Amino acid sequence: MKVYIDFDDVLCETAKYFTVLAKDLFGIVVPYEQVHFFNLQKSFNLNDEQYDKLMAAGHLPENLLAYEETPGASATINKWIDEGHEVFIITGRPFDSFEPSRKWLDLHQLEKVPLYCVDKYGREILKQECSYSMTLAELYKMDFDFAVEDSPSAFEHVAKFNHCKVAVFNRPWNKNADLPNNRFERCRDWKEIEILFEKIK
Q: pTM of the full predicted structure?
């Protein structure tokens, strides 16, 4: 099968790291369980200047490399690869964060998995001509059998893959989100994601 996997808050605990950054930078304390919005500016009640500073800090190479792996992610993915499945990591991270993101994957035993940066959220200003960048139009031409995603803002993208089963990684910011159709199913962790995958493969 062909598998789409998001990066942040699927492979690694990005939001938890940002709660620490918000406290360190601005003295703003928002427990992870209260990060109710995918838009961190809204979750932390930041002004534009603070939000820009937070995002810049969160995407510094040394910080990107410090994100903790979501338990079970690399072991499960490598098992799928060993079984012959094709796995692609499709991230909405800024294109200029590719190198540290690639290094993080390699350090977490995911060196076999290709990484693509896609402007999922309309944040990029310039079109990128890189082997690792992909437009939404190019992404929509791909076909996937299984996907793992946490962002309600990205549900519309994975919904375009016909017959693709989507594991929604349960997070505080998506618990009240409406799921597009019955191909979307909530999973609490990588164990539940693996169980769902086994049912359809």
A: 0.94
